[in-house]
UniProtKB/TrEMBL annotation, chains A, B:
Organism: Flagellimonas ochracea
Database matches in PANTHER family: BIFUNCTIONAL UDP-N-ACETYLGLUCOSAMINE 2-EPIMERASE_N-ACETYLMANNOSAMINE KINASE, ROK (REPRESSOR, ORF, KINASE) FAMILY
Secretion signal, residue range per the UniProt entry: none
Pfam families: ROK (PF00480)
The name this protein goes by in its record: ROK family protein
Family membership: Belongs to the ROK (NagC/XylR) family.
Domain of life (superkingdom): Bacteria
Amino acid sequence: MDIVIGVDIGGTKTKIGLVDKNGKCLVQSFFRTREFPDLDDYLDKIKTTSDELLQSLEVKPNILGCGIGAPNASSKNGTIENASNLVWKGSVPILEKLKERMNMPMRIMNDASAAALGEMLFGGAKTMQDFIVITLGTGFGAGIVTNGQLVDGYDGFAGELGHVDMTIGDGRLTGLGVKGGLEAYVSATGLKRTILYMQSKYMVESRFRDVAYNDLHGEDITKAAEEGDEIALKAFDYTANIMGLALANFTAFTQPEAFILMGGLTNSGKWILEPLEKYFNEYLLEVYKGKVNIMLSSMEGKTAAICGAAALIWEKQD
Amino acid sequence: MDIVIGVDIGGTKTKIGLVDKNGKCLVQSFFRTREFPDLDDYLDKIKTTSDELLQSLEVKPNILGCGIGAPNASSKNGTIENASNLVWKGSVPILEKLKERMNMPMRIMNDASAAALGEMLFGGAKTMQDFIVITLGTGFGAGIVTNGQLVDGYDGFAGELGHVDMTIGDGRLTGLGVKGGLEAYVSATGLKRTILYMQSKYMVESRFRDVAYNDLHGEDITKAAEEGDEIALKAFDYTANIMGLALANFTAFTQPEAFILMGGLTNSGKWILEPLEKYFNEYLLEVYKGKVNIMLSSMEGKTAAICGAAALIWEKQD
């Protein structure tokens, strides 16, 4: 049985799974990224976790390679560069160092670009030539496909839309210090920041008056919205407004057929989606109206990123 | 001799030329677009102008086809739709109607996309796979190339970046009524609007205190800057600031190797380019620094748009 090892390097978790040719993740595992601040230890951990997964299969698999999705990864250089959500600083030659441990075909790509490949091979974008995957986790990532091809950019760093400045003037700082950067507003983290902002702006009561930033969790914000908590509702509306404008702007760039959303923020369901649809259509240029879908990824949340990473190797097979 | 008819439909002028396989415009002519408010009269005028040009050649040419660049043109539909700078409203089936008059292979495309094709075939982008052409005339247009291919979008309307909203909140309205739209600031027209804005904001003396909006011309603004007119200098700085931010944002989208600028505003030379370079590098994400060039089109200004339009047909020849 042919399989591909998919590795999703996230700011919080590193997920590893074995993916078959239909995009099914047969087995998976994860560990906390921050527990391995030393790069060599971290890469050893990827190796041992992969080995454990491989040994757990009943049939001995034929390993085609290893695909890796990571923030700020350059597919062309095989590196992760200045990722604000990871502890290793500067330019990390991750592909080269992992190859020393695992001798097999290997590719690395920006996590959102990998997710876009996954959607194209295994998910909701099988029939699409022009679409954008948006990942809404710790940060805001984008994987852009035009003319049926992933947009990599001159140097492999296309799609860093989380650091697009949405404000002429003064805005929140992203992890990379970009003023007004999109992901400072539109991401799971951005929503938490907005919960604080709304409490600073309005004097209304809220369950969050008793919760510190580090104790804030996305699911609690969703629950609060369901209970009618005004701060939560205002926070979703504010997030959706900026996101609606951003997606309308992105439409003017490559005119995708659809935006496919995934990641923690999408777990808030209608609380983010309904105002998002409203603002998006309000901002969308007339010529695009009715032509651009916003949809949730149909891939299973827990394995979508792993399957996206594995798609880097699967797309090269015939 | 093989030639292609190139037609550039602009808000002010319609330019027509005959272009050989090296991108040389052999003869050209123009007329004022607004003198033909009736679409049929306008298309007749394109036909007669083309015929005159063809007859002016000493050798009888072999006509391969006609390429058309126009604002808000859809390559997929063969239409111009809701172009704010043209008098014909709604969806104009220009390709179909022109074919009734000129029976030959014909393609239409957004003018900036056509310009990008022209740069790829004949100009400074011959060796590039990822670049963006920016046209700075009455409006702000963008022709985006990734993976060596023009980005058309799902429906042929990619690259409408002039209507990207650069402000969360309140901004100038574009011709399409988009609040804060980029071309309301960054275009030959935007610069004129900024000359008024600066006079409203500052009380300093300026030669423009005696000039009404309709009498403002780009070359006078350049001349004023050369003479140290503070309003002109502030206007260039303000324009360059917004443009620098926009180009830095666009870089995060497709990571082009270069931005190639053309159109009226570029005639202001260093007055726009020097502050643009400064702001662009200030806003650019660290990971892109030193990797993205801003350059002027090397194509001859008067015929660049015609050659771009002709490139629509030339790119299909082998």
